[in-house]
Amino acid sequence: MASFNEDDFSSPEEVDEYIDENEDELSSHDKEELKGIKRDLETEKQQRIQKRRKWAKYGITGVLGLGLAVLVLGPLVQVALSPSTQQKGFNLENQPMMGNESAPVTIVEFGDYRCPVCNQFDQQVFPAVKNNFIDTGKAKFYFINYAFLDQYMPGDTSQTAAVAAECVYRQNETEFWEFHHAVYDNQKSESKDWATEDFMMQIARESTEGLDYGQLEQCLSNRETADAVNSDRRIGRVNGVSGTPTIFVNGEQLSGWGYTTIAQAVQQELAKTQE
Predict the structure, then answer these.
(1) What's the pLDDT tens digit per position in 147-167?
(2) Ranges of each domain in the chain
(3) In a 3-state reduction of DSSP, which class is residue 194?
(4) Coil, helix or strand for 11?
């Protein structure tokens, strides 16, 4: 009798595929166990989606509560600008941007799709930043790949996910953000090499609309955007990035990634525009 674990599969669809490919070898008990794993994976996926929707509706009361919670985390989220990085030399012209181009404040995230803390940022902090600063025209937000975790973990999940995201961005910047969030929604353990080309294509088809998926598959298979991903990482290194997520506000690196840290930095920059 086989023994299965939820970590053996990255999606409900992968469970179905496994059952189809091994139909004759699986016992009835195995099939029931696999169906249970599929249900668990579907539940987790729905919970991630619902959680995102909840944060997307975040009001000021919720944001203040988040700020208090973040403060408990300690040194990682001190409300201050880091003096260690004063360089402002990254070119944002070809980077994904959300918000009004004329917004007075620029927020930049360097992230790695394999990074679990980046997932926390995307699901717990970013929605409040979007609600309070991006959607109100006070700030615009850029994402730059810093795909570095592959050097510590098996496989090339960081690189593959980043290449896939760049391929989507090449076709449609709006759909890039849908794919970007969906990759985090489907993120697995950082110790697993989960970002396969097939899985990236599955996420793209499920989360985006109007793309040329044949072209996207070719872009991903040929690693056509690998140079852009590698260039992003060089931009990060030059500007003092050593881990993810790393946040910059108007060119200054912050000492943390929590909402309170970002909010105070943005407010400081907005105050300068009133002087």
Answers:
(1) 999 999 999 999 999 999 999
(2) 1-57, 61-274
(3) coil
(4) coil
Residue 28 pLDDT? 78
Residue 250's CB: how many other CB atoms inside 10 A?
18
* pTM (predicted TM-score): 0.71
* Separation in Å, CA 55 to CA 31, 109, 110, 160: 36, 19, 21, 28
Q: At what angle do helices 173-185 and 157-171 cross, to 10 degrees?
A: 150
Which residue did the predictor score with more confidence, 152 or 86?
A: 152
CATH class of 61-274: alpha beta
Question: Which sign, positive or negative, has the C-alpha torsion 207, 209, 213, 216?
Answer: negative
> How much helix, strand and coil, in percent to the nearest 5, is found in the chain?
55, 10, 35
Residue 113, C-beta contacts closer than 8 angstroms, at least 6 positions apart: 147, 157, 158, 161, 162, 165, 183, 184, 187, 195
